[in-house]
Design brief:
The chain has 234 residues and is mainly α. Helices cover 68% and strands 8% of the residues. Strand 1 and strand 2 form a beta hairpin. The radius of gyration is 24 Å and the shape is globular. Its main location: membrane.
Length: 234
């Protein structure tokens, strides 16, 4: 039990700091868009990384530094792009809209429909009628899910902290202690990610004011730039 608690505290200390995953979850929670999807991606990714570290995959990462270098640069540029989107949203003049209603109906379009002329039997007359045509838009969860995947799997710190460091600590306990430690770390992720995502969603109404939302976007943007610069110096 003490080993599992040790894992829980260690895991919580690693993920509680503001990082790209937490910033994304906070942002999506406040927007109330794809929160569950992003939480699921973060949790499933953590399962693979943490279990991989316990199984000793971290040794492979340590022996292939070129992989970490490539991930570092890819992650750096994506973090800068995400910061740009935050600043872009901050410059918009509208406030955050919290929509608790059902999804809006698809856009309407017009179609020419031929109707028969029953008076003289001379054929039909083309009249314009409005018909329901489904709008061909991308699901709102796609971009946040891609961002969550990028922030997790293109982040060298995730490999170093999870595969190498946590894996190293876990394996010091031997069997079955290492799996007790791993269970504790996974429990920390299972508690933290829903807490920040759904917690932000609960606060979305009081924080939906334009100035507040603008300020949050600016803060998150600068946090992302800071993480990107720290990534280069890692």
């Amino acid at each position: 039990m003490s080993i599992a608690l040790n894992g829980f505290i260690t895991g919580l200390s690693l993920i509680i700091a503001i990082g790209p995953q937490n910033a994304l979850l906070l942002r999506q929670g406040l927007k109330r868009v794809a929160v569950t999807h992003v939480i699921a991606v973060c949790l499933i990714s953590d399962v693979f990384l943490i279990v991989g570290g316990t199984l000793g995959v971290g040794v492979i990462v340590e022996k292939a530094p070129i992989v970490l270098v490539a991930l570092k640069w890819l992650g750096f540029f994506y973090l800068l792009y995400f910061a740009y989107t935050c600043f872009r949203d901050a410059l918009k003049s509208h406030s955050l809209t919290v929509d608790e209603s059902a999804p809006s109906a698809p856009e309407k379009g017009e179609a020419l429909v031929s109707t028969p002329d029953t008076d003289n039997g001379a054929g039909g007359v083309a009249v314009a009628q409005r018909t329901m045509a489904p709008a061909k838009t991308q699901p709102d969860w796609v971009k946040p899910v891609i961002a969550a995947l990028v922030f997790t799997w293109l982040n060298p710190a995730a490999y170093v902290d999870t595969l190498v460091m946590l894996g190293g600590i876990a394996n010091q306990y031997g069997d079955p202690g290492r799996w007790h430690f791993t269970a504790g770390v996974l429990a920390a992720s299972t508690v933290w990610f829903p807490l920040i995502g759904y917690g932000a969603a609960k606060l979305s109404k009081p924080l939906s004011n334009h100035r507040v939302w603008q300020g949050l976007n600016v803060v998150i943007g600068f946090v992302m730039i800071g993480i990107a610069l720290r990534l280069l110096m890692h």
